[in-house]
Protein 1
Amino acid sequence: MRHTKSWLGLLGALVPVALGLGAILGAVSIPLSDMIALFVGQPVDSTNAFILLQIRLPRVLLAALVGGVLALCGAVMQGLFRNPLADPYLLGIASGATAGAALVIALHLDIYWGAVPLGALVGCVLAVAIVYRIAQTRWAQLDNYALILSGVALAALFSAITSFLLFYSGASHDARRLIFWILGGLGGAQWLYVFGLLGVLIIAGAVLMLFARDLNALALGEEMAAHLGIEPRHLRKILLVAVTALTAVAVAVSGTIGFVGLIVPHILRLIVGPDHRVLLPASALGGAILLTLCDTLARTVLAPAELPIGIITALLGAPFFLFLLRRRAQLGASL
Amino acid sequence: MIRLQDVQLGYDGCLVLRDLNIEVVPGEVFGLVGPNGSGKTTLLRAISGRLAPEAGAIYLDCRRLTELSPRELARELAALEQEISCSFDFTVREIVELGRLPHRERWQRLSSKDSEVITRALELTHTLEFSERKIQSLSSGERQRVWIALALAQEPKVLLLDEPTAHLDLNYQIEIMELIRSLAQRDLTVLVSLHDLNLALRYTDRVALLSEGRVLAVGEPERILTAELIERVFRTKVRIVNGTGDLYIVPVRSQR
């Protein structure tokens, strides 16, 4: 336990390092001294101060929050579905949210504030409902791959909807906004998004932490969890509501960013162990670090041009996914 | 104490077991025997509160099972499924710790009393020496002892075991049954389903023989597991052999 606590401490210490790195690096590099000066309230070059406060800080904080949310959701879903390959992206849930957001934009319903996140939420709820029904079927419970494969099908379906909307909008301004959602990115970062996502994360994260020990019991199967006094249906509902809200809000501010929810919990499970009371906060911190670094890379590799961040996470995640599949096959484990 | 009174069990209105009247007292190892599909698992599921009876009532001490919340029930009664799998590689101690869930509020940390109970459960099942090892690195016999330790950590009055010796080597079968016997001596009420009649004969105080949706007979194993009854229920000729004071059930080869 002391061992895992020090890992949490280390991850917690690395988050500000990643944030600081992300804040000073970019198309315009800002001296570290300026950032420190800004924080201690000393006079700073006004251009640099503007870049830091209005552009970099909201962006790196949003990257950290989105990364944390996605990794947290991945860890919870892996526990909930008893499937180490579950993640909002692979199960098609993030694609559902993207399609919902895209529909709002294509139909010009986003005249009201909050319409796009609401569209993402509706798409997300729909996708979660479908995934949940599939997970309840007998064949999905017998075969862990079945759930992932149906997630792939679901993602393809929702992507088709989004692609159609893109095609339908032609070369308009809407089309560019849609592409942003499809590729995923943090270019639209604003302080409003940061606070919105932070609020949802605090509430949903607290709920998830309270139920982390129940997730541990669920690792022994629903029947055994029930023998330990847990009501599995009740637990599923609570966790799915929290995960749905988190995924929807993350997608609404950043589009579809894949694989963070898969990679981070996996690596951390190897390091801190499978106990969800440690794994969940560790995943949130790890996801924050990973996505902040990926976003910094996306901004700097081809500066001043920006690479969509989904490309970088896919470059990291897809080989990792294949590696996991291969390892499972070699171990002969039923995942 | 577990008492079943005129219990009818079934799924979706279709009865699997009828007219169950059984009483099991503390300190007793009560065996459930019968052919495959005779309803042993169904009966255990009902007593564990996971299957509501179609009619009749099941009592735990003086309270009906249906009056108890899942958490209250988990503090009184522990049940182990026939095949338990763990989807993540927890350590033995982490798994046994789960037995304390029904005793703690969700924001409470592990108390020193919890730790004591966990250590005692590990000791009783002889799993303390590998309590820091990962569950997936253990043999099936060791793993079975861990599941029993998990159940003991619940500090139950009643322990339900569904085929605890299935898929185990002979030495582990004996080890698990000896363990179960020693637990009953600590005033635990144990209900265990067994497909191995010899284990039932040797390690249970009483057995219920299930056949064709009914309890055919209840009583001391030597009295129930007779050549005649076994032949009737299992449709196999057997001989009861007395070897060095113990009875053995030996199937007779059919004449060709």
Protein 2
Amino acid sequence: MPDPGMHHGVQQQLHHLYSHHHGWLNAWLRKKLSCQHTAADLAQDTFLRVIISDRRPLPEQARAYLTQIAKGLMIDLYRRQRLELAYHEWLLHLSPVEVPSPEQQAVALQSLIQLDKVLDQLPAKVRETFILSRFEQLTYSQIAKRQGISVGAVRKYMLKATQACLEML
Amino acid sequence: MNQPQAISTAVDYVSLQQEALEWQVMLWSGEVTTEQQHAFEGWLSRSTLHQQVWSEMKTVQQKLQLVPQTSIVLARDKLPSAKRRRLLQMLGLAAVTGGAVPVLRQSEAWQTLAADYRTYTGQQEKIQLADGSQLMMNTSTAVDIAFSARERKLVLHEGEIYITTAPDVTQARPLLVQTRHGTATALGTQFNVRLKQHETRVSVYEGAAKLQSYNRLHSLTLASGMQAGLLPGALTTATSNGNESAWLDGKLVAEQLRLGDFLDELSRYRVGVIRYDQSVANMRVSGVFPLPDTDRVLQSLLQALPLRVDYFSRYWVTVHAA
């Protein structure tokens, strides 16, 4: 949807980018994904990313730029599907009375996807420390021993991870 | 004069957020002392701004509690780029997955997921409360702590807890446990509270406890060594304690117990389901079994009784007659 306040030149630039590149990008994604609907969605999302970001590629770099974004989106999609699958698998192992309602499932899955993003951008040691504390219920001394670091370092890592959660969750 | 004040509030907010982060990291250590807990509560009660900042932290806590441990394991290993590329080639396959999941509503589920303290299947946890009381949580348990100026209330949403109360030195507030079936108020005491589907079972081990049904029409003082059931509109007759507190020692104790009841009990500690044929449900089991190693318990059953155990997967076990 074009922003009414958007500069005319920018709009023309985007129009040019879309008309010259949408066709091949869609075809390229279809080959990669072997599902035409997903490919069409990702092609749209790719252009949406370009519109949202302020970066405009030079004409000779447009193809490389668009493929780079599209690849990133495919990885996101893949991770999302993996997480959905893992979550649904977990649900199947619950006894019927333990299964959350569809609304709760949606909220939980959203939290899982967000948390996955948070963890993904943390350094490995910080991530591991946070998971051991929050998901394996180890105390800081136990984590320190297991990771071969000081309790002070555990606290420092937890501070970093918790801050990231506060900003992104 | 308005402007500088607005700026100083913004600065306060940022520094309070930093303080909240530090408190959260301390509270998550699993090694919190009573003094630290007190200090935190002092901090929290300082102003509404403090509480506002802390409520953001609570949102984070709640979101984390929603995430099942098994599904986050996937996120642990960041994929190296070569692996990513190969995985991308598999995307065509991954795109067709998904499908209907059987779903059943449960009204208390949300409270359970968002509770202050939570254990998952097979876990037990010890918690030191701000007043020095001690709370042991059994498998699959969710508790909210609601301490106020008037009372020390624990709300049990699911599972089982064992409480060792500390006297409230400064304010002499009563300590009580509330469930959907009623309340149990401690009278200087150690007691076990287990929320079952149709009743809440309270067993007193030291001192006494006063039980009151949810509709407040029935009450009863339960002495040490006795147990009774809370119902929304009634109380059951008091009887002597059995082995209700054996879980504290990591044991499941059975004395001529129906096998069906035994397996139901065992499945509380096991992720997934344990099904059994009706033909074996009335066999009797006796013994002391180690928790939380439910596989070992199932194996030892095979030695004692003419049974066969089928594993469809780790999460689906069926017990038949041999």
